[in-house]
Design a protein that fits this description.
Strand order of the largest sheet: 3-2-1-4-5-6-7
Structural class: alpha/beta
Low-confidence stretches: none
Number of helices: 6
Helix content: 25-40%
Largest sheet: 7 strands, mixed
Bound molecules: 5-O-phosphono-beta-D-ribofuranosylamine
Shape: globular
Amino acid sequence: MKKFRLAILASGSGSNAEAIMKWAESSELATVVCLASNVSTAPVIKRAGKYQVPVIVHLKKNKLETRELFDQRLIEKLKHYKPDWIILAGYMRLLSREFLEHFNHQVINIHPSLLPAFPGTDGYGEAFSAGVEESGCTVHYVDEGMDTGSIIAQRSIPMIKNESLEEFKKRGLVIENSFYPEVIENLLKGKI
Ligand code: GRF
């Protein structure tokens, strides 16, 4: 059976990217064909090396470069790897309509909150400050907005009394790392 070809986009530490690369290593369903990062020093780049996943470092040409041009250049680099799905894992940029259309909207992301609550860059922090009883994470399709695409799956993370924000974030990330590959697998199997 032909494997689905996944391209990961990431900007930071890459624990989710690594969880996906690890899962794909023994998966009959998918292979990670490349990982692109917009941050040349991102730790995720080293993690890709561990799995022999080719890395694309894709940087802004200058401050004035538009999102459209940046994404157009990224499409050119990604298309050599013929990805079926684009998997965002801590990718800290919005994507242009052209990018999403080019990849037939088969672009997904994981976000650290139960969307639509707490979109943006600090999902766990905001949920923690708001004192909610339950937080969670969401895998969703990516659209042009900030964490506004349609929801694929969510996992609840109940708050624990007296837990610090740091502990909560750590616990959340560990849950994300098992949840994201699980959702990708179900998505590729057509179960969700
Ligand atoms: C995760 O919390 C993810 O939900 C969010 O960014 C963080 C990335 O962490 N989009 P990592 O780089 O995968 O460790």
